[in-house]
Design goal:
CATH architecture: 2-Layer Sandwich
Oligomer: single chain
C-alpha cells in the first residue's frame, strides 16, 4: 500500500511546442504531480530524509520544464515522470502537464495530458 503526496499548480515558463513562435516566445505550463510512496517511516521519525523533499522536487521539475525545448507535451510529461521516479521511495508518479495557452483557434480553458509511470509495471492501485 502506498500513500500519495500531491504537488499541484506548479507554474513554469517553457519554450515547448510544434510551432516556431511557441519555441521563440515561450508560454506558461502548469504541472501537477501525485507521487506514490510509503510515508510511515517519515511520520514515525519526523525526519525529512525519510520522505520526498517536495520543495527541492518542485525546483527540479521547474528546471526540467524550463530547459531543452521539445515539440510535444507527451515528451515533457515523460521527462518529468522520469525525474520524479529518481526520488528515493517513490514507487509511481502521476504527472499532468497543462498547456493553458495552447495555440488553438477556439475558446477553451485548458489542454492537459496526464501520464502515470512506475518503477514497476504495476503502477498505482
Amino acid at each position: 500500500m502506498t500513500d500519495e503526496l500531491a504537488l499541484t499548480g506548479l507554474e513554469c515558463f517553457g519554450h515547448h511546442g510544434v510551432f516556431e513562435f511557441e519555441r521563440r516566445e515561450g508560454q506558461t505550463f502548469v504541472i501537477d504531480l501525485v507521487l506514490g510512496l510509503d510515508t510511515r517511516s517519515a511520520a514515525e521519525t519526523d525526519d525529512l530524509s525519510q520522505t520526498v523533499d517536495y520543495g527541492s522536487l518542485a525546483m527540479a521539475v521547474k528546471a526540467a520544464v524550463e530547459k531543452d525545448p521539445v515539440d510535444l507535451i507527451e515528451t515533457l510529461a515523460q521527462r518529468i515522470a522520469a525525474l520524479c521516479l529518481l526520488e528515493s521511495g517513490v514507487e509511481w508518479v502521476r504527472v499532468t502537464v497543462h498547456k493553458p495557452d495552447a495555440p488553438i483557434d477556439a475558446t477553451f480553458s485548458d489542454v492537459a495530458l496526464t501520464i502515470t509511470r512506475s518503477k514497476t509495471q504495476e503502477g498505482p492501485p
